[in-house]
Amino acid sequence: MENFFEIEYVERIAISLVIILAGITALYFAVRLIKANIKLLKDKSKRKKILTKAVLPLSLFTLLMALRLTLPVIVKDPELFGSASHFLMVLLVSAGAWIAISAVNITRTIILSHYDVSQKDNLLARKIHTQLKIIERIIVFVIIFIALASILLTFDSIRRIGVSLFASAGVAGLVIGLAAQKVIGSMLAGFQLAITQPIRIDDVVIVENEWGWIEEITLTYVVIRLWDRRRLVVPSTYFIEKPFQNWTRKSADIIGSVFVHTDYTMPVDELRAEFHRIVEKTELWDGNVANVQVTNATSQSLEIRFLVSANDSPTLWDLRVLVRERMVEYLQKNHPDKLPKTRVNIQSPVSQC
């Protein structure tokens, strides 16, 4: 390194120009490669944002490298040179971490552009989205940790403290582990969710008696978008330790039921024919399950269940509402006398002579 700083100023400037030229060349090919792989992204602002993530950190790193080489030409004072050199080293490490994080983020975005979660059969897409988002967070955490450690080690005082504490690292690690066991447990649970995938992005779940979609999965918590646009945030350990309902674990298609109560005199075959006529005319039905059964008979009415299926839970909800409305309307118009009623038998008292 000492021989490196003895290079003539002209040679330093020449090497800096070569580095800048190499950086521009690398940037040109990186932009071309990214453009070729983001054609599937329809949002132009998103494509522009991806290119910005690639251009800014790589340009900054190239300029910092060139400035690091030409620093002896610019700064003559030895003390000022040492401080400026150390400051540039910190910036170089930060810029390198920025490049690595941007590369991970761009790679994830390009891969996920081939898997559309909005499709009806989106099981594989949701699986890939879940895995890559959690893996990205893990890699980013590791990059930031290494970058911070590298920056701290550039300070002599901190390096000496680190060497002195190395002998007691076992005890320190034990104390830190006991103090942060909940945080570590949550992070391990998040990693386990990425591997085993009991839940995935956009899964329909029931948690704490709340119905919604999995919106975000992190290393420590999961965000659930509820049906009324509220957000339910639960720790990652919840999905490892407690039972919950996942309606789209294997596929998005789902079966639901509608219950209607009628009088005993209601002809069930007529209801069955009307029900099939309703579901066959709507696009909400997926064409798989459509069944009518008398599931209960109380002292006052019959309980009739209409079983239907749909491609996903939101569609099923709309289909159930439609079936319920149309069946009640049919009963009101065609069989108003068949609605549930209470019968009272009044007998006159027996006269005594």
Keywords:
353 residues; alpha+beta; SH3 type barrels; Alpha-Beta Plaits; 3 domains; 5-stranded antiparallel β-sheet; 3-stranded antiparallel β-sheet; elongated; disordered N terminus
Structure description:
- The protein has 353 residues and is an alpha+beta fold.
- It folds into three domains: 114 residues, no CATH class; 116 residues, SH3 type barrels; 85 residues, Alpha-Beta Plaits, CATH 3.30.70.100.
- The protein is 59% helix and 14% strand.
- The protein has eleven helices and eight strands.
- Strand 1 and strand 2 form a beta hairpin.
CATH topology descriptor of the largest domain: SH3 type barrels
**CATH classification class of the largest domain:** Mainly Beta
% residues in beta strands = 5-15%
Give the low-confidence spans.
1-7
Q: Please give the number of β-strands.
A: 8
Q: What structural class do the secondary elements suggest? A: alpha+beta
**What is the total number of structural domains?**
3
The helix content is 55-70%
**Mean of residue pLDDT?**
79
Mind describing the biggest β-sheet?
A: 5 strands, antiparallel
User: What would you call the shape?
Assistant: elongated
Give the helices and strands as they follow along the chain: HHHHHHHHEEEEHEEHEEH
